[in-house]
């Protein structure tokens, strides 16, 4: 039976259950992708993986240090390398780009249009713990837009949160990922890829030190190199 585990943080204390199965995690922006991969893996192997979701990848890393027992992280390589969690290996899955999206009723032709008075609110994910929050912060700084837009910027925890406010019209524009746009693009006005101005986003499956010889981990990594797995990456916006 699949076990969905959400990290519970109350009064500053992390409640982390012991895991009987090999556990994998990612940030909420790639939760659907990882869930599809785990479901396909079960179909192929008959084996169940435990999926652990804690919010941003930064929160997932914190939960690991609290004893979550996760063996494989799916995230961008730079964030994982910069963390104080030790990894034995990084298996490339593909590259990703930052996406600027906007609500219905607006027309945005370039990031410079964010300075238009008609755009009053711009959302982006957590700049410390979320992949696309870091990328957005870097892009805004590099492009010189952070200063002019400072009164419009609103920070949220995750990509799905930013996107949900775009669909309701509570945000005018926001920085998200390709995965959420591919899944729900009809509910917004439009989007554009931001190709530069931030560090490259290389998505990987990273194995924590000590788990690299686990047969289940090895089997999952092998599956992640299959054509079926690659089709899932493409569906969620990753590029070879």
UniProtKB/TrEMBL annotation:
Keyword entries, A-Z: Metal-binding, Signal
Signal peptide location: 1-20
Molecular function in Gene Ontology: metal ion binding; molybdate ion binding
A Pfam family recorded for this sequence: SBP_bac_11
Cell cycle as UniProt keyword: no
One GO term of the biological process aspect: molybdate ion transport
InterPro entries: ModA, ModA/WtpA
Family: Belongs to the bacterial solute-binding protein ModA family.
NCBIfam families (UniProt xref): modA
Protein name listed in UniProt: Molybdate ABC transporter, periplasmic molybdate-binding protein
UniProt source species: Bilophila wadsworthia (strain 3_1_6)
Source taxonomy: Bacteria, Pseudomonadati, Thermodesulfobacteriota, Desulfovibrionia, Desulfovibrionales
